[in-house]
Amino acid sequence: MEDHDRFELTVNSVNRLPCLAISEEQFAAIKVHKKTLQAALAIEEKYELLMCNFKEYERDVLDTSLDNMITFSMEYSKFFDERLRFNRRLVNILTASKMYMDQMESHLRDCLPGEGRAALAEYFKSLKSEQYDRHFEYAFFEALRNHAQHAGLCVSAVRQDVGNAVASDGLREWEFHTYVFCSKKFLSENRDFKKSVLNVMPEEVELTSALRQYISSVGEIHNSIRNRIEKSVNESREMLEDIIKSYNVVSELGTELVHANHYSGTESPVEVVSVFLEWDNVRIALQQRNLRITNLAFRHVATPRFIQKKARK
């Protein structure tokens, strides 16, 4: 540090406000801890993006069943539109998943600056390998993502199923279901599709059920990452909270925004780091919204079953 360098906390505004001198080490720590929280937010945002795309896929399954219940059509364009609709949703999910996986190592390094690059890479690889070995669905969708990026689409067929059973008083209850499939024959046309996955794949994979397991597996990975970075992230937030509090003690402003300024022999700062936590509150809200859900493969949404009430005499 040059002799004329100085570091201060203040609120940059037109009006001159109180300043609190800090050390170069404190200034550097502010930057590190802010970067940690930014990376933690990025992790939650990417997981939220994946979950939003998954919810849209599930809603489309329900909407398609509803359309079939209300409007009967055997036109080819209807089947084409349904297949295109689910291809679009799956490509969105796989793209969001690719973003999550490709950028996670970088975010882990920012959240855990004291840990080595190689160790974190091995840690993240082990999380993915565990899900790959435990669940065919995880391995399948990882291979399907590569297929979608380089060879073709994901959906070979969309089929409607209508079941009925006696309810009461001789009336029948009708149930409408939508099933989305990817066939082994469909994928085998891509010579580069991963052979180890294709060899153990059934003749058809029902994609909705398989997707729920895949999202559950990503959820397992995400929860492990949350646990790994929790201490570091909490320490970073506490440090920035203390910075804001220390400035408010001196200034008596009660502000939620502080600027850490680096001056180098000039009246204007050469580097400014804003310190506030409203944006980190978004990270906390996303964590609460996406609580640990790892058994999606055993869940589905259903409408109320038919109940025929007898008329009163």
Care to describe what's here?
The chain has 313 residues and is of the alpha+beta class. The protein has one domain. The chain is 59% helix and 15% strand. The protein has eight helices and seven strands; from the N terminus they run ββααααββααβαββα. The chain has helices at residues 24-70, 76-111, 117-134, 136-150, 184-188, 195-200, 207-251, 278-289; strands at residues 5-10, 20-22, 157-166, 172-183, 204-206, 258-264, 271-275. A four-stranded antiparallel β-sheet has the order 2-1-6-7. The chain has a three-stranded antiparallel β-sheet with strand order 3-4-5. Helix 1 runs antiparallel to helix 2 and helix 3 (117-134) runs antiparallel to helix 7 (207-251).
Q: How large, in whole angstroms, is the Cα Rg?
A: 27 Å
Q: What is the CA–CA distance across the termini? A: 93 Å
Query: Helical stretch count?
Result: 8
- Structural class determined from secondary elements: alpha+beta
Tell me the series of helices and strands, N- to C-terminal: EEHHHHEEHHEHEEH
| Contiguous runs where pLDDT drops below 50 for at least 5 residues | none
| Overall average pLDDT | 92
Global shape? elongated
Structure summarized in a few sentences:
The chain is an alpha+beta fold and 313 residues long. 59% of the residues lie in helices and 15% in strands. The protein has helices at 24-70, 76-111, 117-134, 136-150, 184-188, 195-200, 207-251, 278-289, and strands at residues 5-10, 20-22, 157-166, 172-183, 204-206, 258-264, 271-275.
Q: How is this fold's topology laid out?
A:
Layout: E1 5-10, E2 20-22, H1 24-70, H2 76-111, H3 117-134, H4 136-150, E3 157-166, E4 172-183, H5 184-188, H6 195-200, E5 204-206, H7 207-251, E6 258-264, E7 271-275, H8 278-289
Antiparallel strand pairs: 1-2, 1-6, 3-4, 4-5, 6-7
Helix pairs in contact: 1-2, 1-7, 1-8, 2-3, 2-4, 3-4, 3-7
